[in-house]
Amino acid sequence: MIEVNGLVKLFGDRKVLHNLNFTVGSGRICGFLGPNGSGKSTTMDILAGLLGPSSGTAKVCGFDVVTQSKDVKANVGYLPDNPPLYKEMKVKEFVHYVAKLRGNSSQDRNRDVDWVLNECDVADVANRIIGNLSKGYRQRVALCAALVHKPKVLILDEPTEGLDPNQILHIRKLIKKLSEERTVILSSHILSEVQATCDEVVIINHGHIAAKTSIQNNVDKPLFYLYTFASKADNALHWFQQRNYVLSAKSLSQKNNSILVEFGKEFWSDNSGVNIANVTEQIVQQNFPLIGIEEKKEGLEELFFEVIRSQPGQHQIQLSPSGELL
Ligand SMILES: Nc1ncnc2c1ncn2[C@@H]1O[C@H](COP(=O)(O)OP(=O)(O)OP(=O)(O)O)[C@@H](O)[C@H]1O
């Protein structure tokens, strides 16, 4: 649905996007993460057909953003960083106006406007002046404007920026609902937001892609188990160190009788013959006085800081070799 190949953007002689490559499959929600100034909005502007790349290609729904920008715009709904709203207009009047500009046919326009007002939960304020609405409502009106022509792809630049937790939850649910029939790419600084909303994530740092991963398949998996024993755990430590599916096992000096065990990738595969259930059974058979197992997950936050700390362009973590995203 979205295909980016070797995308480069220069502003004057300053290169702000360096050879970006990624794809987002149909019906997926892709989070676009990165520090301030890393190039998220520039990439989104290019994908929306509003800004030309310096080299490389980007296609949306099979249409090239440069040579077929009209088709791209017809298939894309874009919610920019600061969405343009006519604050003195009433909500319904404004969305109607956008529908006309977008070319919705005159016989469908009323129906399309009513549909989008309901879809974005703003029907109750249809006759209110936009400038008098709360920020959360204004953001949903802006979403109406991005959606009224029924695009197949939604591009949302920081859709929850500046909203309170309640409004964030509302927009998050709305994005999930909208994604049932669309491909969505959204940028955000809020890592928990991306983890809760997206299927996959692209992390961009200084204009370079630093990581791409599928969230459900990779980021959420437990990486470590912390085993706690009732008495000295030296023989248990030795036992874990002998297992070929254990990457590392060490005593934790700050936690008495605890061992941190990190498992290899094969531990998680269905056909490796090892899993948490039979490992626990084996430990019990060893008569180690095991009193607790705690799961440690690697979250998006750890991944984000790991890649952001590394040198731009030097390091790319690609956790999804099966490649839905790539
Ligand atoms: N029109 C422009 N002319 C010159 N430089 C620009 C222009 N637009 C963006 N830039 C620069 O390109 C770089 C990437 O900016 P961009 O807005 O894409 O980053 P971002 O990741 O969206 O940042 P933020 O999270 O702060 O919104 C920044 O250094 C910015 O100053």
UniProtKB/TrEMBL annotation:
It comes from the Bacteria. SMART domains: AAA. CDD domains: ABC_DR_subfamily_A. Keywords: ATP-binding, Nucleotide-binding, Transport. GO terms for molecular function: ATP binding; ATP hydrolysis activity. InterPro entries: AAA+_ATPase, ABC_transporter-like_ATP-bd, P-loop_NTPase. The keyword Hydrolase does not apply. Residues 2-231 form the ABC transporter domain. The keyword Nucleus does not apply. Belongs to the ABC transporter superfamily. This is ABC transporter domain-containing protein. It comes from Silvanigrella aquatica.
